[in-house]
Amino acid sequence: DADEHLKPRPPVVTIMGHVDHGKTSLLDALRGTDVVKGEAGGITQHMGAYQVTLKSGDKISFLDTPGHEAFTEMRARGAQATDIVVLVVAADDGIKPQTIEAINHVKAAGVPMIVAINKMDKNGADANRVRTELLQHDIQVEEMGGDVQDVEVSALKKTGLDELTEKILLQAEIMELKANPDRMAEGIVVEAKLDKGRGPLATVLVKRGTLRAGDIFVVGVEWGKVRALVNDKGQTIKEAGPSMPVEVLGLSGVPQSGDILSVVENEARAREVADYRQQ
Ligand code: GTP
Ligand code: MG
Ligand code: NA
What pLDDT was estimated at residue 100? Predict the structure, then answer.
């Protein structure tokens, strides 16, 4: 896209960290929801996608990843699909195996990271111990003379949240994130499933362009026509612009996570591309 078509877009932020360090709780605190309560065994097993509108009107899109060791691939994908990673470390537990794994995904993806030291309300919370442990993994936070931003938070007591969103927006500003909203949409499948009542569903993060009801698209070996777009609050919406996560209905089948969705001119073209890919 030529520069004159590019407009500022919200940052996409992936939340990563060891199991139970409070990633989903932190998102719940930011969104005013209670997703954790609905999770089986309190364990996140899929990638959640949300958009938060701050009091200032600024928007931030979030991808929540599981911390359980079984979900390495989802964490890798989360690091690749994002602008910024927020690494959540519980202040009473410190650096653990999936914290280290997350750091490695972040380094491989080459994305900037902000460290959220969570559970500061707990007895035994020790933020400086976390900062020192991070040094052993080549992560130097500002207080240690480095350039990685960190922030002390409590998802439970809802403290440090404004500071966290400020740091995210500051990092985003430096990155000058832009996309052209006025072109045929392209996005990445964050997750997909077959819903008994509604058929194949895909949660898509729009990268560029604007996705609208009625648009015809190809996604992996599947194609479709957008029957409905549903936002993270379960509301049906008319369109989704850059950085917006949205649930797409109207697919021919269930695509793969990580597949690229591209809007095309017409149904004939969509079938042609999907058929070709299926061979
Ligand atoms: P996975 O997605 O399964 O890896 O876990 P998670 O990182 O999303 O953690 P989750 O939000 O499920 O929280 C795990 C537990 O820690 C829950 O019992 C939360 O209530 C608790 N918790 C999260 N944040 C805080 C906090 O700031 N303070 C305290 N005291 N407890 C917290
Ligand atoms: Mg979780
Ligand atoms: Na959990």
Answer: 98
Q: Specify the pLDDT at position 252.
A: 96
Cβ < 5 A residues, ion ligand 2 = 23-24, 44
Q: Mutate which of 15, 16, 18, 20 to test ligand 1's pocket (most atoms within 8 Å of Cβ)?
A: 20
| Residue located nearest, by CA, to atom 3 of ligand 1 | 43
Whole-angstrom distance, CA of residue 256 vs CA of residue 245: 16
Q: Is the pLDDT of residue 4 over 90?
A: no
Residue whose CA is at the smallest distance from ligand 1 atom 13: 22
Asked if residue 44 has its Cβ within 6 Å of ligand 1, the reply is yes
Whether ligand 1 lies within 6 angstroms of the CB of 119 is answered as yes
Residue among 120, 75, 73, 115 nearest 95 (CA): 115
Determine whether the shortest distance from the Cβ of 215 to ligand 1 is under 6 A: no
Q: Mean pLDDT over residues 138-151, rounded?
A: 94
Which backbone phi and psi does 170 adopt, to 5 degrees? -65, -45
Task: Please tell me the pTM assigned to this model.
Answer: 0.96
